[in-house]
Amino acid sequence: MPDRLITHLRHVDLAVPDFDKQVTFYEDLWGLTRVADDSGVVFLAAEGSPEQYIVRIRKAEEKRLDLVSFGVATPADVDTLAASLGSRLISEPGKIDTPGGGYGFRFFDIDGRTIEISADVSARAHRKIEEREAIPVRLSHVVLNSPNASATRDWYTEHLSFALSDTLSHPHIGDVMYFMRCNPQHHSLAIAQGPHASLHHASFEMRGIDEYMFGTGRLMRAGVRKIWGPGRHMAGDNTFSYFFDPHGNTIEYTTELELLDEDTWHPHIYDFSEPEVTDQWGTANPMNELVAKESFNDVDRGLFVAPPM
């Protein structure tokens, strides 16, 4: 097994100007549960996940990605990672004052995003998602745009021990995405080549194919802008339906993401120009330059600027 300390993805935190519209969308349409409020900040959980929350929304003058949070097993692991990251620290390891508490710290990654590492966060009471209940079970993965994706891939490999699962490449433009894992799940993180650093998309796991399709249909009927899907990727073998949230962040419903035997797995390089690579089923709208650009997102205003909370 790989020698790593990070165990899983915890939550993705967003800051937005139209706070009420964003919260209403994630509650009423996307299917998350509001679990806590704190003066212009809302914490949203997935009913099937033991994480206290998987999305945090904060009211702000400018849209930004506040942070991405990963879990480790023990406070000692928190301290070990903090010591290894040194000058990149935003905060020293200590008590976390958010739902579930815990012990952790924050730092800037190579592109200037704020990353949080935590342990000892108390588990939330959660439940089994029922048949045809089309709400997220958990946060599946997050994909980040980088103007130098290979350097960002190498940084996460060297400093946080993420492993490369697969690569998407194109015969004319080179590598376009690196799928990175911190556990047997095919990817908890992916790095996409983009014109600037930003959130590419956040993905939410559904119970199964039926629930994934019912959720996709609910959003389409509600007039939410669908970018791409429904379909099934080759890398990761997962389903996909991508939508815009009210502030233009791309979010995904998915299910059946591949679990790997890490002792025997060898990374593939998939040719992104082949239609079956982007969508094995052939049911999604074609992947083209316009669809790709939709997930470049706005330039992130939070780079090398720590969120206020």
From TrEMBL:
<protein>
    <submittedName>
        <fullName>Catechol-2,3-dioxygenase</fullName>
    </submittedName>
</protein>
<dbReference type="GO" id="GO:0051213">
    <property type="term" value="F:dioxygenase activity"/>
</dbReference>
<feature type="domain" description="VOC">
    <location>
        <begin position="8"/>
        <end position="120"/>
    </location>
</feature>
<dbReference type="Pfam" id="PF00903">
    <property type="entry name" value="Glyoxalase"/>
</dbReference>
<dbReference type="InterPro" id="IPR037523">
    <property type="entry name" value="VOC_core"/>
</dbReference>
<dbReference type="InterPro" id="IPR029068">
    <property type="entry name" value="Glyas_Bleomycin-R_OHBP_Dase"/>
</dbReference>
<feature type="domain" description="VOC">
    <location>
        <begin position="138"/>
        <end position="256"/>
    </location>
</feature>
<dbReference type="InterPro" id="IPR050383">
    <property type="entry name" value="GlyoxalaseI/FosfomycinResist"/>
</dbReference>
<keyword id="KW-0223">Dioxygenase</keyword>
<dbReference type="InterPro" id="IPR004360">
    <property type="entry name" value="Glyas_Fos-R_dOase_dom"/>
</dbReference>
<keyword id="KW-0560">Oxidoreductase</keyword>
